[in-house]
Amino acid sequence: MKAKNCLIFGGSGQIGKNLIRKLTKNGYKCTVVTRNIHQKSLKIKTQGNAGYIDIVESNIFDEKKIRKLFEEVDICINLIGILYETKKGNTFDNIHAKFPSIISNLSKEYKLDQFIHLSALGINSSPDSFYAKSKLEGEKNIMRNFSLSTILRPSIVYSVDDNFTTNFMTLLSRLPIFPLYYSGKTKFMPIHCSDLTDVIYHVISKKFQSMTIECVGPETITLKEILEKL
Ligand SMILES: NC(=O)c1ccc[n+]([C@@H]2O[C@H](COP(=O)([O-])OP(=O)(O)OC[C@H]3O[C@@H](n4cnc5c(N)ncnc54)[C@H](OP(=O)(O)O)[C@@H]3O)[C@@H](O)[C@H]2O)c1
After folding, report:
1. Span 159-170, pLDDT tens digits
2. Is 100 in the pocket of ligand 1 (CB under 6 A)?
3. In three state form, how does the secondary structure of the chain look?
């Protein structure tokens, strides 16, 4: 049987690396799009055996180049997300709402088997957050464009070298005091990265469609408790 090919955006990140490892181990091929092949190819290539991973360097808004990639694949997975806005068009609206809209449209046009998108937990109860609003807008665009899409909403994702833990540990080791927004009472249900990639793999291997899945770990913990643990 021909190996299925997954087109992955954001594959060089924390979740992406783990997911590529899981997919290639199980016989899936991955085409991974990155903005900088020189910086990211080692990270990406070392997640699978030779022949299983192709890397393409592209601006994610270069629609002509991106469009060509959809001709060859069966599944598209979007793992691109930002926590803050920077210059050069890296706005929440562009990254979380417009880009998912473009690739979900292409997934429909090219009749892909699945489009899988990573959103975030709790976004519908955070009306003041620009991050949450843009993620919600992205979800709406996706379901309007390609109703067979599957949306995953993870809580904080942790692993040995995740950005959340390492950034907090650096700040905690440097600062004499630490601000606790909302008195540190905000609750999280952290999920380990390999558990999340198991969920994504399950969605792919069982061919789930048209679903929104909340992905959480077994423990509910406040920000203050997380910081105390760190
Ligand atoms: N990690 C968490 O705790 C968590 C929790 C909830 C939801 N999520 C969501 O899950 C998804 C994956 O998370 P992650 O932690 O694996 O992400 P990540 O490591 O921060 O980033 C994933 C990749 O996205 C690409 N990217 C980042 N900013 C970009 C930009 N402005 N334009 C184009 N590409 C950009 C980068 O790839 P290149 O540099 O190779 O181009 C990066 O490696 C995101 O949508 C995130 O919002 C994550």
Report:
1. 988 988 999 999
2. no
3. CCCCEEEEECCCCHHHHHHHHHHHHCCCEEEEEECCHHHHHHHHHCCCCCCCEEEEECCCCCHHHHHHHHCCCCEEEECCCCCCCCCCCCCHHHHHHHHHHHHHHHHHHCCCCEEEEECCCCHHHCCCCHHHHHHHHHHHHHHHHCCCCEEEEECCEECCCCHHHHHHHHHHHHCCCCCCHHHHCCEECCEEHHHHHHHHHHHHHCCCCCEEEEECCCCCEEHHHHHHHC
